[in-house]
């Protein structure tokens, strides 16, 4: 009986310690994604579209990792307003794709605008239910 209680205690401790790490990994990736998008906007303002494109790609990778750390339920049907996290996520990835496309073409202003929109959607995603 003691071995069983010890094992249960160890498992409970492991779960308690593991859940904060998952939340912090999700938060860390979200923060890094928005930081990279800030850097993309700044690079675009300076006319450095290559750097803006790289920062946008980094932001996209962090957003993907954030979704892996804490996935949300995707709705099988597309009903506006039903799943705001999904909607903001899709819009953020769409805006990041636009930013990368404009960066590749050397369009600094459009790159910065799209990166700023992506950042706003990621922030809105975090605040939605």
Automatic annotation (TrEMBL):
GO terms for molecular function: metal ion binding. It comes from Methylomagnum ishizawai. Residues 99-110 have a biased composition (Basic and acidic residues). Residues 26-129 are annotated as: Disordered. This is Small metal-binding protein. Keywords: Signal. Residues 1-25 form the signal peptide. InterPro entries: SmbP (IPR031877). Pfam families: SMBP. It comes from the Bacteria.
């Amino acid at each position: 009986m003691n071995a069983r209680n010890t094992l249960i205690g160890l498992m409970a401790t492991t779960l308690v310690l593991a859940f904060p790490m998952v939340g912090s990994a999700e938060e860390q990736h979200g923060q890094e994604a928005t930081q990279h998008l800030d850097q993309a906007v700044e690079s675009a303002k300076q006319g450095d579209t290559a750097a803006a494109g790289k920062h946008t790609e980094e932001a996209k990778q962090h957003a993907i990792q954030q979704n892996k750390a804490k996935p949300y339920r995707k709705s099988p049907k597309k009903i506006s307003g039903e799943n705001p996290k999904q909607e903001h996520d899709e819009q953020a990835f769409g805006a990041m794709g636009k930013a990368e496309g404009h960066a590749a073409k050397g369009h600094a202003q459009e790159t910065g605008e799209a990166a700023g929109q992506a950042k706003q959607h990621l922030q809105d995603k975090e605040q939605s239910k």
